[in-house]
Amino acid sequence: MRRRFQSFASQEAEEEESIDVTPMLDVVFIMLIFFIVTASFVKESGLEVNRPDANTANQQDQASILVAIGPDGDIWIDQRKVEPGSVRANIERLHAQNPQGSVVIQADEAAATRHLVSVMDSAREAGVNNVSIAAQEP
């Protein structure tokens, strides 16, 4: 009889020593999902651009389409080089995904003005009225 009692007592002791980590893992996964959903991702145009200085520069919050123009006239949208003839189609596609967003053009200081005007015209022809040019505050 004593042995039976000792065996039950030892089994209970073994069960009490182990910790169930399942609820902790559930909480960790829920927190991970929360942080992934609420994270804001920074979009980059795919080209490092030396932007000109401007005293009247202000922050643009709803920039969903970033277009970069390199010093030699290369046009980059979503980290890939785009031909000048297909800029309008790319902006139309991206604008359809986020109609409230705007177009921000990051033109290099050494880029020709004709490339900047060409991209601005393409954005307006694509139906985007909110077109901005990126600049640095001095």
Question: Can you describe what's shown?
Answer:
It is a single chain. With 138 residues, the protein is α/β, with parallel strands linked by helices. It has 2 domains: 2-38; 63-133, Nucleotidyltransferase, domain 5 (2-Layer Sandwich). 41% of the residues lie in helices and 16% in strands. The protein is built from 4 helices and 5 strands. The chain has helices at 2-17, 22-38, 87-97, 113-125; strands at 63-69, 75-77, 80-82, 102-107, 131-133. A 5-stranded mixed β-sheet has the order 3-2-1-4-5, with helices on one face. Strand 4, helix 4 and strand 5 (131-133) form a beta-alpha-beta unit. Helix 3 packs across helix 4 (113-125). The chain is elongated and about 75 Å long. The model has no long low-confidence stretch (mean pLDDT 78).
